[in-house]
């Protein structure tokens, strides 16, 4: 086994153990009869896995190899489930590198494995692993129409590193024109869509330089009960990224990302982030919305509508940054900012961002709600 793979597996084992310990800690706090922070629901635990109630255990077609998976997707129609057994490991590296392969999921089709299911031997299924080690991985999974569901899959990309030196070198040598040099190093995306109503649930997604889930367009996307980590390439590095898209992101675990949730801030860009837990490591601020200054389009627009509610932030970095003015509003409420003691420490924003009724500090109950 190569040193690179061994190091990644060691890091992955460590982060899973950390996530297990972290979710055993309180994710919410009650102050004066009000609950702040993230809570699990009847569907399952925050981050999914064992205890998740919507695990897919079989399908209309079963595929344990890449060729079988491609054939199954090609033959599927709306309403079908393509199931990949939980012990399957499908390496797409060569086909992505040589053929620019993309797993194209037809409209209304579910691509699923059984992450968190109890196995016959008493163990727990990790979920099928789909992986690419090609640094230039433009997309692994791409919905071809609305209503696609990706469930119970482990999706692992090629780049878990920050590459701080590359970003610094580009900035120092090329100044405002740094992007031409910076983008000579390839990037990667996990799931990319322009279609409506993508659902990503009960997945573990990691190691993508640009984004684990890239919502380029579309409405009513739903990313929930998933564990998204190690998307932290400096300058990019997003867990879930939005362009002209809107989504609900809830009951996810985030760790070791640059921004766990981000948006370009263009009109129609927005998200509702609820009951998520930021576990503790973040290269930069955790939840983001770009403004017009970032795009250089002469506006100060930072998306259309944003809601950030009932999340728990354990990272020491700035939890929330809205880099402009939303077209409608950004409502920040009932979050627990564990490492921050005031609204000013927890949120950086301009006009039309309303920060109210949040809890600050640790131990639980030490700080009063407010702001």
UniProtKB/TrEMBL annotation:
Region (Disordered), start-end ranges: 343-371
Residue ranges, compositional bias (Basic and acidic residues): 343-359
Signal peptide boundaries: 1-24
UniProt protein name: Right handed beta helix domain-containing protein
Superkingdom classification of source: Bacteria
Keyword list, A-Z: Signal
């Amino acid at each position: 086994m190569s040193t690179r793979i061994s190091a990644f597996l060691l890091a992955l084992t460590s982060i899973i153990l950390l996530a297990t310990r972290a979710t055993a800690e309180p994710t919410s706090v009650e102050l004066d009869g009000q609950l702040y922070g993230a809570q699990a629901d009847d569907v399952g635990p925050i981050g999914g896995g064992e205890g998740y109630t919507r695990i897919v255990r079989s399908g209309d077609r079963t595929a344990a190899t890449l060729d079988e998976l491609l054939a199954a997707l090609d033959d599927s129609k709306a309403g079908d489930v393509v199931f990949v057994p939980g012990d399957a490991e499908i390496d797409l590296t060569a086909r992505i590198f040589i053929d620019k392969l993309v797993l194209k999921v037809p409209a209304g089709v579910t691509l699923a494995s059984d992450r968190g299911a109890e196995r016959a031997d008493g163990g727990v299924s990790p979920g099928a692993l789909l992986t690419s080690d090609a640094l230039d991985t433009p997309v692994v999974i791409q919905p071809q129409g609305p209503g696609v569901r990706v469930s119970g899959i482990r999706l692992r990309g090629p780049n878990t590193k920050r590459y701080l030196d590359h970003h610094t070198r580009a900035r120092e040598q090329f100044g405002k024109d740094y992007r031409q040099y910076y983008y000579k190093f390839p990037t990667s995306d996990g799931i990319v869509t322009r279609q409506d109503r993508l659902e990503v649930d009960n997945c573990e997604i990691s190691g993508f330089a640009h984004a684990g889930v890239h919502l380029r367009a579309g409405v009513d996307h739903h990313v929930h009960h998933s564990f998204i980590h190690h998307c932290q390439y400096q300058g990019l590095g997003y867990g879930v990224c939005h362009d002209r898209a809107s989504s609900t992101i809830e009951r996810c675990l985030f760790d070791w990302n640059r921004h766990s949730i981000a948006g370009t801030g263009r009109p129609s860009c927005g998200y509702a982030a609820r009951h998520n837990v930021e576990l503790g490591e973040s290269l930069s601020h955790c939840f983001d919305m770009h403004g017009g200054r970032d795009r250089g389009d002469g506006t100060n627009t930072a998306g259309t509508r944003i809601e950030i509610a009932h999340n728990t932030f354990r990272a020491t970095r700035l939890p929330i940054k809205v880099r402009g003015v939303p077209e409608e509003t950004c409502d920040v409420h009932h979050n627990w900012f564990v490492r921050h003691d005031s609204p000013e420490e927890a949120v950086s924003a301009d006009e039309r961002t309303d920060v109210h009724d949040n809890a600050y500090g640790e131990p639980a109950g030490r700080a009063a709600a407010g702001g």
